[in-house]
Design a protein that fits this description.
Length: 433
């Protein structure tokens, strides 16, 4: 499922408009994350039952002119390396520019699938103008209007054909990814965990996706670490450090069962952290938040509580997530992080027997049924957990369409109160019966 679609191209061709269009279908599910939508350049999209991550490289462009073209060139190279599919967006109203040509020549060397997306075809008269883009030498062209959405369906039909399947022989050990912004302490915690005795470690270069999986087997723990920190690549353009790190983060995140999101206690929990959190949540990964460099904070008896509340405010409504305060340099609570990740792994895999579910939940529902709408009453008959990698519950009832969002929350909270799903996203469905 680790499929990434990267949108590349020079400025103003419509990359971010396309990005918005591809990711918007997901908005149907509660997507009211206050204050973070503004600067998000990567998100989940869905087409024909494929979930994939879309990244808009345009969000990472430098401000000053001289580094700007170099930055774009390098982003194209990174996109080729890291993405499953590259969408090269060009603009029918301007034709081919020098920068388009240059991007195309880099893309021609790519072994990854590249799609030429001719944008801004708002009406059929422009079809003839689009033909010139065949001369880019990248094969078939796809004509779309990001503004109206026309043509994007045909494009996605082709794109998903190039997706990689989940590796069937993949290791069955839990996989944990330590992610976070640069400098929060990811390398330090990995080194602390692995210690000096590197014999216990077997780095297995990821087969198809070239990420590093480290096998950790010590003190009764047996899991794989999906490493992003160790793979920091040199980049010539400083602005691309963030782009590169986001790319790696998304990949590691998609491969992991549990995401260990590390933040710097001094810097706090910021919009980028919130974006990573929501990406993990939408991907239905287990989540542990680690507040590192706790040694640098002046503390009193309330400090932890205040910190926790601030973070929970920012990650609402999914607040049932463990938060661990560490100092890697002082060796404080490093192993606790792993204990908690194991716990979250178990919570995410937890299966509740149908009888137990009904025994616990039906009386709760009886006492507090969904509010009647237009005189119609929703009757919930029974509940069952749906098979899957994360907890999902189906509530069978007569009128599922009358159950509104607040009741979903109520049910989720009750499930969390009675069963331990800490750190695991829980999905609730009401189904016709
Ligand atoms: P980016 O810099 O490549 O991310 O480009 P933007 O998505 O910001 O779009 C640049 C401009 O082109 C904006 O004014 C968009 O409204 C416009 N635009 C994007 N897609 C279309 C389209 O399909 N048709 C038309 N007519 N304009 C578009
Ligand atoms: P990464 O970029 O996330 O891999 O971060 P690093 O592990 O390279 O750490 C960045 C810097 O933070 C290094 O100088 C570390 O020594 C320092 N650092 C890491 N953990 C802690 C901590 O718990 N406390 C303090 N004071 N510094 C830390």
């Amino acid at each position: 499922m680790s499929n990434i679609v990267a949108i590349v191209g020079r400025p103003n061709v419509g990359k971010s408009t396309l990005y918005n269009r591809l990711t918007e279908s997901r908005k149907a599910i509660v997507d009211d994350f206050s204050g973070v939508t503004r600067d998000r350049h990567y998100g989940l999209a869905e087409w024909l039952n494929h979930n994939f991550t879309v990244i808009d490289t345009g969000g990472y462009v430098a401000n000053s002119d001289d580094v700007f073209e170099a930055a774009i060139r390098e982003q194209v190279d990174i996109a080729i390396e890291e993405a499953t599919v590259v969408l090269f967006v060009v603009d029918v109203t301007t034709g081919i520019t020098d920068l388009d040509d240059e991007i195309a020549s880099r893309l021609r060397k790519s072994k990854k699938p590249v799609f030429v997306v001719v944008n801004k075809l708002d009406n059929n008269n422009q079809v003839a103008d689009a033909m010139v883009f065949y001369s880019l030498g990248l094969g078939e062209i796809f004509t779309i209007s990001s503004m109206t959405g026309s043509g994007t369906g045909e494009l996605l039909d082709e794109v998903v054909k190039h997706f990689e399947d989940e590796d069937p022989e993949e290791n069955t050990r839990p996989k944990y990814a330590i992610v976070g912004r640069p400098n929060v302490g990811k390398s330090s915690i990995i080194n602390a965990l692995l210690g000096k005795d590197r014999n216990i470690v077997t780095p297995i270069a990821g087969t198809t996706r070239d990420s590093i999986h480290i096998h950790y087997n010590q003190y009764g723990h047996d899991f794989m670490l999906v490493d992003t920190a160790g793979l920091r690549k040199k980049t010539k353009v400083k602005e691309n450090i963030e782009f590169y790190s986001v790319m790696r983060t998304i990949k590691a995140l998609e491969e992991a069962d549990v995401v260990i999101l590390m933040i710097d206690a001094v810097e706090g929990f910021e919009s980028q952290d919130i974006s990573i959190f929501h990406l993990a949540e939408k991907n239905k990964k287990g989540i542990v938040i680690v507040v590192n460099k706790w040694d640098l904070i002046e503390k009193n008896s309330k400090t932890i509580k205040v910190f926790e509340e601030q973070i929970r405010d920012k990650i609402a409504p999914f607040t049932d997530v463990p938060i661990v305060f560490t100092s890697v340099t002082e060796k404080q609570r490093v192993l606790k992080v792993i204990d908690v990740a194991n716990q979250v792994y178990e919570n995410r895999a937890r299966k509740i027997p149908t009888s137990k579910l009904n025994e616990v939940m039906l009386p709760i529902i009886e006492n507090y049924p969904p509010p009647a709408i237009k005189g119609k009453y929703v009757k919930i008959k029974y509940i069952t957990q749906i098979a899957g990698t994360s907890p999902m519950f189906a509530f069978f009832c007569n009128l599922p369409q009358y159950v509104k969002e607040p009741y979903y929350r109520f049910i989720e909270n009750k499930l969390r109160e009675h069963f331990d799903f800490s750190g695991a996203p829980v999905q609730v469905w009401f189904r016709q019966k």
